[in-house]
Amino acid sequence: MVSKIKKADPEAAQVLVSALDTQEVTRGVLPPVDVDSRMNLLREERSVVLEFEPLWPTDIRKQLELVLAERRNALKLIGAGLQPIKTAMFKGPPGVGKTMAARWLARELNLPLLTLDLASVMSSLLGKTGSNLKATIDYGSSFPCVLLLDEFDAVAKRRDDDRDVGELKRLVTVLLQAFDQWPSSSLLVAATNHPELLDPAVWRRFDVQLDFAAPAIDEISALLRHEGLSDSFVSRIAPLLAGASYADIRRKLLSARKVGLLQDLPFEQVLLEQNASKPQSLRAEEVRRLRQAGMSQRKIADSLGISHPTVNRILKSLEKGNYGYQEPSA
Ligand SMILES: Nc1ncnc2c1ncn2[C@@H]1O[C@H](COP(=O)(O)OP(=O)(O)O)[C@@H](O)[C@H]1O
Ligand SMILES: [Mg+2]
User: Fold this and answer.
1) What is residue 158's predicted lDDT score, i.e. its pLDDT?
2) 118: nearest Cα among 156, 151, 160
3) In this predicted model, what pLDDT tens digit does every residue of 226-256 receive, in sequence order?
4) Which keywords, in A-to-Z order, does the entry hold (predicted)?
5) What Cα–Cα distance (Å) separates residue 273 from each residue in 108, 133, 256, 278?
């Protein structure tokens, strides 16, 4: 609208821009409740507090910063006839920061966060889900906020149930319309562990899609250093945590801290012991990989946090082609 009237009446365009800018919001609708139970459908946080500062991998950080930049300069973009990013899809396995990223965005943008956990809404009857979803989206559209549709794939999971196919189609239509009509004053984020369950027609509608993944060794190391672990210890323990999600790693650190405290053992020792017991085949595979990359046996031992003789034994048995190698328990 602004770009349309700008030529004819620049002053009116300016008034419109500043009207959009106002933080004084009048909420046209009440927070949505379930039609039957009258329970609140949404969790609403006026200002988000994170229990922990995220450390974003470089590519994720770049994409999140882009969302922030567009949101912060939304009026400038709108003034030039451009749409700022208003819908985002976060994909990836559990525990890798999708929910956290939505929370972080809300905090950085200084906007309230509304969270709709679709897994719980979908457990109600599908017909009501449609009206619940619609009420939620109407509410989220009525004032500047970040609306997080968490566990978004729950919508698609019902597809297996033939009885509900008609209702489901209507539901998807509600969603698609909501995405198209979503106002540029708010940000809608959908997060899912199972993007493959979603109809491509749904996720094509999102302005941006971010792929979250388990942290790489470098990111694990950064997280551990951030937790105050020494560089030399980090280089020993990080490879043992490869493949774990951020959530797993935080759990492991916490558990080692508790055991260390209760049993009066050094935290480092507990963490190493708790994580050194990888399946043997997996460990042998790691040793083989590092050896092929030209690493010395001593270095392999250090980086995997296992003893030098153990590395030697694994390598010998790999040479013999004895892949069913059993590590002596002693
Ligand atoms: N980038 C990150 N940096 C640090 N910790 C993280 C990061 N991502 C996730 N975590 C930790 O993992 C936990 C679970 O993350 P969450 O965002 O809930 O995962 P999901 O991808 O399943 O939504 C968080 O509470 C936080 O402790
Ligand atoms: Mg989550």
Assistant:
1) 53
2) 151
3) 999 999 999 999 988 988 899 999 999 999 9
4) ATP-binding, DNA-binding, Nucleotide-binding
5) 39, 48, 9, 10
Question: Which amino acid, one-letter code, is at 254?
Answer: L
Roughly how many angstroms between the first and final C-alpha of the chain, as a whole number? 76
Give 24's pLDDT tier (boundaries 50, 70, 90).
very low
Reference 124, options 37, 30, 31, 32; nearest CA is 37
E strands of 51-195, at which residues? Answer: 87-91, 113-117, 146-150, 187-192
Q: What is the pLDDT of residue 160?
A: 54
Distance 64 CA to ligand 1 centre (A): 15
Q: What angle do CA 211, 216, 222 make, to 5 degrees?
A: 110
Q: Hey, where are the domains in the chain?
A: 2-211, 217-319
pTM for this prediction: 0.75
- Give the CATH number of domain 2-211: 3.40.50.300
Whole-number average pLDDT of the chain = 84
Q: Cα of 149 to ligand 2 centre, how many Å? A: 10
Residues with CB under 6 A from ligand 1: 52, 54-56, 92, 94-100, 191, 212, 223, 246-247, 250
**Contact predicate 207/85, CB 8 Å:** yes
Q: Which amino acid is at 226?
A: H
Nearest ligand to residue 52 Cα: 1
pLDDT digits 0-9 by tens, 257-292: 999 999 999 999 999 988 886 666 667 788 888 888
